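call fold(seq) -> tokens
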Amino acid sequence: MAENTTQALARKKLGWVGGIAAFFAALIIWGTVTAQPGASFAPELALDLQGGTSIILTPTLADGEVVSQEQLNQAVTIIRQRIDGTGVGEAQVSIQGNQNIVVSIPGSPDPTTLQLIKASALLEFRPVLTFAVSTSAVADSEPVDTSALSDVPAVTPVNASDLNWITEKLAADFDALDCASNFRSAGQVDDPSLPLITCDDYLMYKYVLGPVEVQGLNISNAYAGKITTSTGATTNDWAVNIEFDAAGTEAFGAVTSRLYGLQSPQNQFAITLDGLVITAPSTNAVITNGKAQITGSFTQASSTVLADQLKYGALPIGFEVQSQENISATLGEESLRSGLIAGAIGLIFVIIYMTFQYRGLASVVLGSLIVAGLLVYLAVAFLSWRQGYRLSLAGVAGLIVAIGITADSFIVYFERIRDELREGRTLETAVEAGWNRALRTILVSDAVSFTAATVLYLLTSSSVRGFAFTLGLTTLIDLLVVTLFTHPVVQLLARNKFFASGHKWSGFDLSAARASYAGRGKFVVSQALPATKAAKASKEALKRQTIAERKAAANLGDSND
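ret:
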């Protein structure tokens, strides 16, 4: 009954492995058939393997201004966050020549990613003074002569919402503005202390905005989510939640205190990115806790885009695109080919060693490596589709190193079984006892590898992170395979006549244990073994004793005296 239970449990575990592989394969097939973006059995490749696009950004500065290293470092961090927020992996963002920023993206980036990189002006909060629908009819009318109009406020404005900011010239410029025309120059820098005439990013509405009152740098977090009512119920409507730092909380509290209660459109504040209005919500309450919520006709996608713009849009300086060009991956392809050849050679040597050392058990090793390789491939393809992961040359190196980690688990398990056989247990009993002893060692070994991969991923640059990611992934899959495939297969083989008989090609040749080290300071010597061979085997076995075992043997000898 126990034997049947063991077999049933082993087959159940093997079924779990097959089910996991089938589940992820079915998901990818479904994504491919339904034309889901990025769904494919071929994982996306990183910049060093696929090539991609290189964009050089140059800071836009007023005459006499010099960009600081701190500003460049902050800009690099924010641009990298923008790219990561779109799901593009293995991108490279670096400083070139102490002034420019170079952004290298694998493959062909989508328009949203390019827009986030190029939309490099400051994110700013300005109060709305007035707005109107932009039409070409205004542009088609006679041009307004603004040469004789005053650009100085008739009355000194008392705050950023004061309509006295709208001078005669500014009003005339606003009336003449057509959002369909190129009304802003590339990399234009706006004076934060003056009002601004601009349009929304859809070029449908034009605005007159007051001076800047809150900087985008004061946003500590922004995220999309469903609206929760005062009773705690969650609705199906989407909103964008904004959290400010201490300075932003104070400034935003002062703004909402003034805007709340004003008539439309003066109760609105506009958020501009690259000088364009990305949203202009009205103020429905005085917000002094630094947590605001923007509501409207949002979908999940539109709220997520706006949240990313708010969270990653605040650069310390403005930038313009100096150049954009495609880059090749000829060197990466050659390195990948060499890496795959090296991995194949390493795999062949592992199989040769396992065949020499463990004979028939090498079939278990080969099967386990095939299953592990299949699961790793499906995991990489799935993560490439759903999480934007891209396989880099460093990631391939992590996969190759994982062959040794997986092979080490097999060796630990097989040697524990042999130790139990040396102590006189039957094969089936030795398989279970050996597994219980081996599992602890395997868990410790994989825990060390996974911890190292985690530390590398968190504390190193993007190139090393690719290695760390695949190393951690394959370590987890190694534990899964050895638990749900290797051990159950050995359990089933233990009932096979070829392996249970201790055939010399089975890997469980019991005759090899007749003159061998049995572990724990004990030796097994066959009575039929010649004295010369027994003496030689005993000398060889003595070398394998640990210090603790030698002390135990010495203490045993003293007690016998």
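The longest strand covers residues 123-133.
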